[in-house]
From TrEMBL:
The lineage of its organism: Eukaryota, Metazoa, Chordata, Craniata, Vertebrata. Keywords: Signal transduction inhibitor. This is RGS domain-containing protein. Residues 176-195 have a biased composition (Low complexity). SUPFAM superfamilies: Regulator of G-protein signaling, RGS. GO terms for molecular function: GTPase activator activity. SMART domains: RGS (SM00315). GO terms for cellular component: cytoplasm; neuron projection; plasma membrane. Pfam families: RGS. Residues 39-154 form the RGS domain. It comes from Spermophilus dauricus. Transmembrane segments: none annotated.
Length: 203
């Protein structure tokens, strides 16, 4: 059983693992950066991965897509009382004609979104959010994974040393070996067959 990288804080009382995997760190671990390549969702779920992806999108002049997705997430999980205000803010910032950070969604999705705005609720922008999500997943995400920015993050990532301590110290007990009946007896020890034969001769 291998040790944890860099340690299991619950066993070793060493918080290095938590410190290296905090939401934001100076330099992420290589395992963390590699995990962003597993799926687009893995990248978005990691605050640090999402921040680097935002930097990449800004260089491609498409950062409004991720900003819109984040605004929709805030609407979905925000407080109920703020929903009408948040819906109007997101619409004015990203969807309204002449919006400062206008996002490009198809006409059918826009029609469904505009119909839902008459009775705003926390899921009213789901169709538009899904459209932008799929756009980033199919277009921007593959380019980010092949970009010099991501390759640089991989090259600079930290590879923590594996802890020397076992996860379960009580498993260190040596195993006691028992003699196998198929093996010949060691010198000085009579065999079971010899003992039996000697007993017959004495009788």
């Amino acid at each position: 059983m291998a040790g944890c990288l860099p340690s299991n804080p619950w066993v070793t009382d060493d918080d290095a693992y938590w410190a290296m995997n905090a939401p934001t760190v100076a330099v992420p671990t290589k395992l963390r950066v590699e995990r962003w390549g597993f799926s687009f969702r893995e990248l978005l779920d990691d605050p640090m991965g999402r921040a680097h992806f935002m930097d990449f999108l800004q260089k491609e002049f498409s950062a409004e897509n991720l900003s819109f997705w984040e605004a929709c997430e805030e609407l979905r999980f925000g407080g109920q009382a703020q929903i009408p205000t948040l819906v109007d803010t997101v619409y004015q910032q990203f969807l309204a004609p002449g919006a400062a950070h206008w996002v490009n969604i198809d006409s059918r999705t826009m029609e469904r979104t505009l119909e839902g705005l008459h009775q705003p609720h926390r899921y009213v922008l789901d169709d538009a959010q899904l459209h932008i999500y799929m756009l980033m997943k199919k277009d921007s995400y593959p380019r980010f994974m092949k970009s010099d920015m991501y390759q640089g993050l991989l090259a600079e990532a930290v590879i923590p040393l594996e802890t020397k301590r076992r996860v379960f110290p009580f498993m260190r007990k040596p195993r006691l070996s028992s003699p196998s009946p198929a093996l010949p007896p060691t010198s000085g020890e009579p065999s079971a067959a010899g003992s039996a034969a000697g007993g017959d001769e004495e009788s």
